[in-house]
Amino acid sequence: MHEPAAFRRHLAPTRDTDWVVYAKRPFAGPAQVLDYVGRYTHRVAISNNRLVSIDGDRVCFRWKDYRDGSRQKIMSLPGDEFIRRFLIHVLPDGFRRIRYFGFLSNSHRARKLALCRELLRMAPAAASKPPVDYRDRYEALAGASPHHCPHCLTGTMVVIGCIERPRICQPVPDT
Question: pLDDT tens-digit profile of 141-175?
């Protein structure tokens, strides 16, 4: 049963606990840690390029087997099992992803990122202005222009009119 008040009561004693955090230097250095954490902070559970096929009720996707020399393999799962595994990675309401905190939080993000780049001795980020129109942004990302005809890929698409949504007629009373 869904009882938020009961869950808050369950968590209440942990708020008064003086937590002791034990942290030691990473074996392979901070670059290894940053690389590891970076793989998980800005992405969904599975990216589209890992999906191989969907045949009937089965989903095939690529995965990396770290126990076998990091080889890429293909796994096939029934659709419901694939969705179950995917949904395990969806955060519950009220939780936030890591990227919304720390130096990537909204407040002072630009200043903090500039400081991180300076500390890592990286070149400053080039200020780029995103295209104003969504069609220009689509073209920059997809490499295909929505201004061109989708069939011949030449010419310019021009909107000459919009088809109105059909209005729902009131039912005629039965007499």
Answer: 777 787 777 777 777 777 777 777 777 766 666 65
**What DSSP line would sit under 115-171, residue for residue?**
HHHHHTTPPPPP--PPPSSHHHHHHHHHSS-TTS-TTTS-S-------PPPPPPPPP
pLDDT tens digits for 111-138? 888 888 888 888 887 766 665 677 777 7
**Distant-in-sequence, close-in-space partners of 51: CB < 8 Å, separation ≥ 6:** 59, 60, 61
Q: Are 77 and 86 in contact (CB under 8 A)?
A: no
Rounded Cα gap, residues 60 and 51, in angstroms? 6
| Measured distance CA(16)–CA(22) in Å, rounded | 19
Give the span between the Cα atoms of 56 and 78, in whole angstroms: 9
Distances (CA, A) of 3 to 6, 9, 14, 16: 5, 10, 18, 22
Cβ burial 3-26 (10 Å sphere, 16+ → b, else e):
eeeeeeeeeeeeeeeeeeeeeeee
Predicted pLDDT of residue 174: 67
